[in-house]
Every structure is written in structure tokens, then in C-alpha cells.
Design goal:
Number of strands: 64
CATH superfamily of the largest domain: Immunoglobulins
CATH class of the largest domain: Mainly Beta
Number of domains: 6
Strand content: over 45%
Shape: elongated
Radius of gyration: 61 Å
Number of helices: 0
Length: about 650
């Protein structure tokens, strides 16, 4: 046959068609121009018992005789092609079996078919005998329950009836049988390995059980409470509870299995999981007010419900970093930078509580109360109610009341009530001359009082007794145009020294004579050029706190003013109100007069006269014309027997 396979026997026959006595035959390989004489035989055949790949090539022969003719012609050339035997490959699964495990050896031939397989082991040509543990089917040898005696080298070879009758000998596989392994079980919590199953586990944690065996190819069977119970699940190497709950607590085992039917490892040691409820952090703030003011003190307290003890530390959360680890976080004094949301949680080793509720801290500027008095316009014997209002909402304010007491060039505050009041009202009843003066208030709250700023002062003039000094105004009216001159004088029978002119505006209490726009001559202040900011309540004040009557002066940059009495008028007097224009010294020709916002007179002379004034004529007056509208002025009417009436602003 041609081609032939390595190892086969090849026979070449040389035939000469003649009756001559051929004594020998010469054999040649390769071409006639570069040939090798292989041998000289006296036989007609050349036999290669086990052909090699190197013996492939061209062959021919020639007969040799001692008589004539001495040689035959050269024979035809025969080509011998040599092919390698088919390869056989041996594989084993698993590669490192354990005692009792099933082992499968597979002999694979890459070409042709109809092969039978022979199995050998232990480096000798000892065929593997069939037994109750060893069975062969086709290209497969199965050792159903491998034992230590099965260790050693294995190889295989294919055989068949047709050419080629065998394969090459396969690679050798070394089988090492090891003792049955034991699965190892480890516990991790929140991706951190836990050295002991006594570690506290809290609800919401991520708990992972990891089962390992020293080799590969395993699936893992998980058991809870009893290792001989059916597995709760079959997974790869991990069994995860995320998040873990109390009901997941218990004792767990694992073991590996591979193959079909599965070959199992020994059970792992048990791991106990004990799950407790995660403590709940509750954040409180004291004082529990909706608004906290700059300078106050607040205390945030983090309390753990369900499991908290003294071993816990605390984390605080705010947009600013807080390094505090105690359950209380005290802020004193509070600043606007402390604004924002606060949360906390407990920390104990790997354990953490839930995050607390959010507490919002709103920090506001220190409030300034507003002091008002009622009634504003007093007659002798009237009661006066002071009201202190704090815009910022709180039910815990306590109100403190003070009277301005002159001290050199400034004022000090004297308590009207040392303990203050829970109500925002304070009554002077009746309001007499001893109550004449300035008043302020402030509010406080908390155990160690946090005080607001003082209110702007309010002043009270009582008309039950005449003052020793009076304030006069020139021109003698309450309304004045800007860019005009005004003189204010403190006049006392006899000596007027020791008195000073004061005024109250929306900016507070200050000296009534502005040095850079006015001059002081004795007890008279001359304002050379009036401005709108010169508006205010003016009065004279002594060093002992005695006050004169007050005059409410209005300076306007409009074109119309109302000329009205500076001081209170007495019932029965005649009162004339005059509407004046800035550029015309005389009266406006036509004007409308209003009292308390109601039109009461149309007049073509620019003035309105009340022949006999009465208490009902008291009120706010103004006038209007084509040139504009005047500011309003209050006209005070006193009874015939009253000495002086006052004004409170």
C-alpha cells in the first residue's frame, strides 16, 4: 500500500523478465543522478520491517548476472510516502481527584473512526482491568470511586482492523488522589472580614457567607440550622443577605459539590449569624424654637433607641465639618454660619446606627423690638399702655421695661420692673408728670436670659403740671420748607442755663442742634438751612431729667405747607389754619382743608378759621391746592381748666 504509516512493514519486489541466471539484485533510493545503493541482495525482495518517515522517497532496482548480459535494465521507480500514525490525546476530569470522587479519562483521536482503545498505567504496558469501580465505554474510562491505589500515570492508544491499525501512544496523565476536602466558611459584613461569628450584626447590614475549597469546579450547597436538612440554596461561592434582617439569624453550614451525581466535600464548620435591630438615632434640639438668634446657645442631643450604650461614639453631619464624638453638641454662641440641616448617627466599631431625623437650625439676626404707646396724645389723668412687640415668633419671650435717665451727654436705662412681664403690655396709670420722659423695652428668653436689642425710645409728655421751661419755635409753626432757617429756644423764667435741646427721629434720640448746620446762642439753636432729616420731635431737657413741652416739626421739600399752632390750644379759643406756597409769602388763593382725611372746607382765601374751638376739633389737618399737598399736622385741644397737654410719639 502507498502511502504507508510509520512502523508498518514495507516489501519491495524486483522482477526481471529473462531466463538468465541473475545472481544478485541492487537496490537504489532517490533519483538516478544522485542515488545511494542501499544494498546488494541475492533475493528479489527488499523488506523494511518498521518504516520511518526518513525512509520515504524514490526506489528502483537492477538485476546483476555473471554471464552475458551482465545486468538488466534499470527498473521503474516506486515512490514510498510515509505518514505519521494518528495522534491520540488523553484528558482527565477532575485533574486532582479526591478519595471517592468519580474520575473520567477520555482518549481522543483526531481523525478516522472505528477505533478501539487500550488503557495503560504505571509506566508499563499494563492494561487497566475492568472492575466494579473501573468501566470503559467507547473512548472513555470511568473510575467511579477513585482510591489511593488508583494513583499513577495513565495513557492510551487506539487500535482497529483497517489501516492504520493503531494510533500513536497518547500523552501521559498523572493522577494524584487526595483525601476528601473540607469546605471552609467565612463571614464578611459590609465587605469587611469578620474574625468571629460573635460579631454583632445589625439589620440593614450586608452580610456575605463565603464557602471555599482548595480546588476549582465546585458549586456550593448551603444549610441552615441542620446540616442534614435539604439545602436552602445552591450558589457559587457566596451567599449574601443584603440587607440582612432579624429573621435571617441562625446557624449556617456549607459544602462543595461537583460532578454528576455530585461528589461532596466534608461540611464546613458552622457559623452563627445573630441579627439585632439597628439602633435608631433621634436628634433633638434645645431650646426647641423655630428661630434661633445670633448669640444664643443651643444644644443638639443624639439619643440611640434600641441598643445604644456607653460604648457608642457619635458622628455629626452638617455642611461644616464637626469633629465632635459625644452625644451632645453645644453651640455657644450661635452664628449665622451654624445655619443648616443637622443629622447624627451612632458608631461602635464596625456598627453604626441609622441616621437620625434632620433638625433644621435657622439662625436670624438679633431681633429689635418695637415699642409703641397708646394713646399717643394725652390729657391729664390718662393711662398710658406701653406695648413691646417682637416680630420674630416665639411664645417664650419675657418683656423688660426701662425709662431713659439722662447721664451726662447720654442716657442710662432704669428698670420699671425688675422681673419683667410675660405680657407684651405695661401700663402707667395714671400717667402723670413723673412719667414724662423716654422709654425703651427689650425681650429675653431662655433659662439664662438671651436678650434682644433695646427698642428705639419712645417719649411721653404728660400735661398734668406745667413745666418750668418751654420750647418756642420761630417761625411759629410746625411745618417748614427745606432750605429755610428755623430757631428753637428753651425759655425759662429767670435762668435758662442747664437745659439742652433734644430731638427724636426715626434714627433715635440725639442732640437737637446739628453743629455743622446750626449755631447755638445760649439756649437757642439756629438752623441755617433746613433739610428733610431735620424733621422730628423736639423738646428741652434738664440734667435732672425734667422735660419741656414737645413740638413735632415737619420739614418738607414739597411746595405747600399748613401753618398750624405749635402748642396745644384751649377750648373756646379761635384757631386759624393757613395754606402757604413755597414761592409766595402770601396765602394760597384757593385751598381745600381736610381733618383726619375728610374734606371739611373749600376756601378761596387760603385759610380756614375755627371761631370757637372745641375738643371735637382735635385731630390731623392738611390742605391741598393746585400747587400741591401739605403734610399733616396734629392740633391738640385742652380743656379750659387744663394747664398743659402733651404729645407722645
Amino acid at each position: 500500500p502507498n502511502p504507508v504509516f510509520t512502523g508498518e512493514k514495507v516489501t519491495l519486489t524486483c522482477s526481471v523478465q529473462s531466463d538468465s541466471d541473475w545472481t544478485r539484485y541492487d537496490w537504489y533510493k532517490d533519483n538516478t543522478f544522485n542515488h545511494n545503493r542501499l544494498s546488494q541482495y541475492n533475493r528479489t525482495t527488499l523488506t523494511i520491517n518498521s518504516v520511518k518517515e526518513s525512509e520515504k522517497g524514490l526506489y528502483w532496482c537492477q538485476g546483476i548476472s555473471n554471464s552475458r548480459p551482465t545486468s538488466s535494465s534499470i527498473s521503474n521507480q516506486v515512490t514510498i510516502s510515509v505518514k505519521a500514525l494518528p495522534n491520540s490525546t488523553l484528558s482527565v476530569e477532575p485533574t486532582s481527584p479526591y478519595t471517592g470522587e468519580k474520575v473520567t479519562l477520555t482518549c481522543s483521536v483526531g481523525s478516522d473512526s472505528d477505533w478501539r482503545y487500550k488503557w495503560y498505567n504505571n509506566r508499563s504496558i499494563n492494561a487497566v482491568n475492568q472492575s466494579d469501580r473501573h468501566s470503559t465505554t467507547g473512548d472513555t474510562l470511568i473510575i467511579s470511586r477513585v482510591e489511593e491505589s488508583d494513583q499513577g500515570l495513565y495513557w492510551c492508544q487506539g487500535e482497529r482492523d483497517s489501516r492504520p491499525t493503531s494510533t500513536s501512544i497518547s500523552n501521559q496523565v498523572n493522577i494524584t488522589v487526595k483525601a476528601k476536602p473540607k469546605s471552609m466558611l467565612a463571614l464578611t459584613m459590609n465587605d469587611d472580614k469578620v474574625s468571629s461569628d460573635k460579631e454583632d450584626i445589625l439589620t440593614g447590614d450586608r452580610v456575605t457567607l463565603t464557602c471555599t475549597v482548595e480546588s476549582s469546579g465546585w458549586r456550593f450547597y448551603w444549610y441552615r440550622d441542620r446540616p442534614d436538612s435539604p439545602p436552602v440554596t445552591i450558589t457559587e461561592s457566596t451567599y449574601t443577605f443584603n440587607p440582612v434582617s432579624v429573621s435571617d439569624g441562625g446557624q449556617y453550614w456549607c459544602r462543595g459539590g461537583r460532578g454528576e451525581p455530585p461528589y461532596y466535600t466534608l461540611n464546613s464548620d458552622p457559623v452563627r449569624i445573630t441579627v439585632t435591630e439597628r439602633p435608631v438615632a433621634v436628634l433633638t434640639i434645645q431650646p426647641n424654637w423655630t428661630q434661633i438668634f445670633i448669640g444664643e446657645t443651643v444644644t443638639l442631643r443624639c439619643v440611640l433607641l434600641g441598643g445604644g450604650d456607653t460604648d457608642w461614639q457619635y458622628e455629626w453631619f452638617h455642611y461644616q465639618n464637626i469633629s465632635q464624638t459625644e452625644p451632645e453638641y453645644r453651640i455657644s454662641p450661635v452664628r449665622t454660619s451654624h445655619n443648616g440641616s443637622y443629622r447624627c448617627k451612632g458608631v461602635k466599631g464596625r456598627k453604626t446606627s441609622n441616621h437620625s431625623n434632620v433638625v433644621q437650625l435657622t439662625v436670624s439676626v438679633k431681633p429689635k423690638p418695637v415699642l409703641s404707646v397708646s394713646p399717643q396724645w394725652l390729657n391729664p389723668g390718662d393711662s398710658v399702655t406701653l406695648r413691646c412687640q417682637v416680630k420674630e415668633t416665639s411664645t417664650d419671650w419675657r418683656f423688660f421695661w426701662y425709662r431713659n435717665v439722662p447721664s451726662d451727654r447720654s442716657y442710662t436705662f432704669k428698670h420699671l420692673s425688675d422681673d419683667g412681664t410675660t405680657e407684651q403690655y405695661y401700663t402707667l396709670s395714671p400717667a402723670g408728670r413723673i412719667h414724662t420722659g423716654g422709654y425703651v423695652c427689650r425681650a429675653g428668653r431662655g433659662n439664662s436670659f438671651y436678650y434682644t436689642d433695646y427698642s428705639a425710645p419712645q417719649f411721653l409728655w404728660s400735661g398734668d403740671l406745667p413745666s418750668a421751661v418751654s420750647l418756642t419755635v420761630n417761625p411759629n409753626r410746625t411745618q417748614h420748607f427745606t432750605r429755610t432757617s428755623v430757631s428753637l429756644s428753651c425759655k425759662k423764667k429767670g435762668n435758662s442755663t442747664g437745659w439742652r435741646l433734644m430731638r427724636y427721629t426715626d434714627r433715635g434720640t440725639e442732640s437737637g442742634c446739628v453743629s455743622y448746620r446750626g449755631t447755638i446762642q445760649g439756649s437757642t439753636c439756629n438752623i441755617r438751612t433746613t433739610l428733610i432729616q431735620d424733621s422730628g420731635v423736639y423738646w428741652c431737657e434738664s440734667g435732672s431729667g425734667e422735660n419741656s413741652n414737645a413740638v413735632n416739626i415737619t420739614v418738607t421739600d414739597g411746595d405747600v405747607i399748613l401753618e398750624s399752632p405749635v402748642h396745644p390750644v384751649t377750648e373756646g379759643d379761635t384757631v386759624t389754619l393757613v395754606c402757604k406756597h413755597r414761592t409766595n409769602i402770601s396765602n394760597i388763593i384757593k385751598a381745600d382743608f381736610y381733618k383726619d382725611g375728610v374734606l371739611i372746607r373749600n376756601d378761596t382765601t387760603g385759610e380756614m378759621t375755627i371761631p370757637v374751638v372745641s375738643k371735637s376739633d382735635e385731630g390731623f389737618y392738611k390742605c391741598t391746592s393746585n400747587e400741591g399737598e401739605s403734610p399733616g399736622s396734629w392740633v391738640t385741644v385742652r380743656g379750659e381748666n387744663s394747664c398743659v397737654c402733651g404729645v407722645c410719639v
